[in-house]
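Hey,
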Amino acid sequence: MGFSHRKSFKVAPGVRVTASKSGISYSAGTKGARVTKRADGRVQTSISVPGTGIRHTSSSKSRADEPVAERSAHQDHAREKRALEADYRRIYSTAVTEMRDRGFTADELVAQLRGQGVADRRLLRAVDDADKYLKRSAAQSAKQDAAIAKEQEIDELARGAARLLREGMKPRHVDARLKDQGVGFMMRGEVVSRAKKFNKHLR
């Protein structure tokens, strides 16, 4: 964006926008303190004490002021980081598949990677992370299976208890029979309660 003349606009109390050939700059602050973001990317801070002549100004470097070698080092570091992240994701995904579908252990996969020349601990950790993920998934799956099995057991006992109640057996006698079958106190309460609901829906 180019401008033939320098133009300045006050957009809010204490905030001014200046447009010039070099671009747009922003300035904000009050008397005695002001921060300016210049068109070249520099940020300038000015602090003064009115009536004393004391004034301090500091300016940060723009990206363009950064030495070429330093910018190159930053770029190399960013490329290295992206490559490392891509390798981590690849090893993690492969490790999940190998351990879940082919039965490999984490130690076996780490040994394979070391044999292939992979020594970076950040990459080797991908195997350990994959192993932890599979173990968490297995634990959650087992917990869900146990909950489903318990629900089915309660439902089956409740249907039997409902039949006994319809035949005229008192709830306390049904509870006693369930106790004789080894059903725990909490589960017996759930079974009898569910049995009563079954019979209520049958009416």
